[in-house]
Amino acid sequence: MPKTDTPEYRKHVYDLVRRIPKGRIMTYGQIAIVLGEGYTPRTVGYVMRNANVDNVPWQRVINSKGGCSTGRILAPHDIQQQLLEAEGVEFNERGFCRVEEYRWEPR
DNA sequence: GGGTTGACGCAGA
DNA sequence: TTCTGCGCCAACC
Q: Residues of chain A with pLDDT > 90: what percent?
């Protein structure tokens, strides 16, 4: 079972995130299921936290609520909605988007 | 080695 | 529908 501390583990997550098309999103749970290998939303989130300093569109990765708990991240919460809106993702007043509609699954 | 926290998810009230 | 609690796995103190 891989660990999040290994570059391989993180690369796996990063690669999947980079595959997300423009104007699409993925939830932590979805990623955890797709990666399998004992991945859990927690571990995925842990990796994403470090992805902040990487060339990964981490803003496309959100929680099941369709939003992002940006209040706990190191980066400003404005970029999340801003970048996604630039890609065509619509957000409501609460700062949430329709996950069921924008959710993308790799194959 | 043990306890707490966390970019989460789901079930229950 | 929204809020609260519990569980999950790994990292941090």
A: 50
